[in-house]
Amino acid sequence: MNLTILKTKSDLENWRKQNQQIHFVPTMGCLHQGHEALIKAAKCFSEEKSTKVLVSIFVNPFQFAKGEDFSIYPRDLESDCKTAVNAGANAIWAPTLETLYPNGPESYFTLQAPSSLTKSLCGSHRENHFDGVATIVMRLLYFVRPKKLILGEKDWQQLVIIRQLIKELRLQIEVQSIPTIRDKDGLAYSSRNEYLSPEERAQALTLPKLLLKESIQFNSIRSINLTKLRSDLEKNGLIVEYLETVDSKSLAPVNYDTTKLCLLAAAVHCGPTRLIDHIFLMNRKPIVAIDGPAGAGKSTVTKRFAKKLGLIYLDTGAMYRAVTWFIQKENINPDNEIELLKGLSNLNLDIYIAGSGIQHVMLNDQEISDEIRNPKVTEAVSRIASKAAVREKLTAQQKMIGRKGGIVAEGRDIGSTVFPDAELKVFLTASPKERARRRATDLMNQGFSVPNLQEIENQIQQRDKIDSTRKIAPLVQAKDAKKVITDGMTIDQVIETLIKMFREEIPEEVWPSNQL
Ligand code: PAF
After folding, report:
1. Which residues have CB under 6 Å of ligand 1?
2. CB–CB of 301/233 below 8 Å?
3. pLDDT category of residue 464 using cuts at 50, 70 and 90
4. Which of 149, 178, 207 is the last residue of a domain?
5. Residue nearest to atom 6 of ligand 1 (CA)
6. Are residue 292 and residue 399 in the same domain, yes or no?
7. Interval between CA 272 and ligand 1 midpoint (Å)
8. pLDDT score of 13
9. Which of 288, 299, 423, 495 is 20 to 30 A off residue 332, Cα-Cα?
10. What phi and psi values does residue 139 have, to the nearest 5 degrees?
11. Same domain, 375 and 509
12. Alpha carbon of 214 to those of 204, 206, 228, 242, 417: distances in Å?
């Protein structure tokens, strides 16, 4: 068995010295297939060969309340080592409480989990549970100092709290989550499933079954009936500790008619065993809005980001370019509103990505994908895009394309005007100098003549001014958009940043990554 077992703090320190980059899976042992999936994901996220996967096993006394199952919690280090190594772990760290706090009980301290995140769900029923989780996870992270921390979405509230703490403490640790892993019969894997007798297990199954049924019903009738669901659970012999709908990020109670991603979660007692489960409810698939000035690298990045996440890519800039090309071809005077409206009424625009990944722009059944990249179009597009009639027509078409979600749209006003309720809004930008340099490379690659860099930079600044000062749908960073300045970043780094941001908003369970 090629597994290093670390017990003491110096074991860990010596191992750390040899292995700089660590992906970390904290557990309380009694490893099951849910843990195996975490370890496999940690392995799969290891871009570099030298990255090692460390699994900790520590039954954390601080997260059990008096009368809970701390003393009988299943422990089997030998079997855990086998499971961990088979799943791809390189080392196991099984510290004792004394290892974590060498100065004894007098030195114990506790962290407090953010109170706004502990008011609902398990937080309001398990006293100090998340303070105990926060204390020990932060202690483990302090010793391990991993690059990535892998956690399960099964414990959604725990995941949200740990993410928040890592952010607040500005720890340079990436949190990656994996969806709830279920047994063939639908029961979510949990170490506590061991306590269930066959009869109780059959009863316990009604929890995932009824949650699933409710979410299927929600998809068609857009409402849920918590009273009925509670009584159905009880009719099946389960004692409901809580059954709540909360906002997936703030964990504040919400009505199910929210447009935001919402969590329907329950804790039930089945015989002596406490089980938790949840399901996400959402009115449509996720939407990502990527806005920013010209030349910030939006297109390349957005296209690849969309492909990686299996989302539809919508290039609204190409739509404005297509209209500009049409107006130039038809010799329409854009300042004559009647002429413009008449021209637009004869315009049938279609934009799609073919199986090959190449974007096609069709105007009145003619392919104009290359034509719209012409510098003559580039020069005029901002002016045309500032016309109310043009914006109205294209905004309506974009909203229509995105009504079911599952889309990444890039443009100037996506987060502010087209999809104001997008789950993730990004303002992608770079300094004018950097953008001029990129624009020159693009022009050269497309075979156009390349003006000098200063000239391009001036053009870019001029275009930014028009875009950000126009009355209709100006280029602005939406209030809730996250700014990414891409100077000095590679395309891959920008995409990785976007994926990380997406994952903070959208769980794997709602929109799975292809790579998992
Ligand atoms: O999820 C668990 O197993 C535990 O809460 C954790 C994260 C290992 C902390 O003790």
Report:
1. 26-28, 60, 63, 133, 136-137, 155, 158
2. no
3. confident
4. 178
5. 27
6. yes
7. 21
8. 94
9. 299
10. -65, -45
11. yes
12. 16, 12, 10, 16, 33
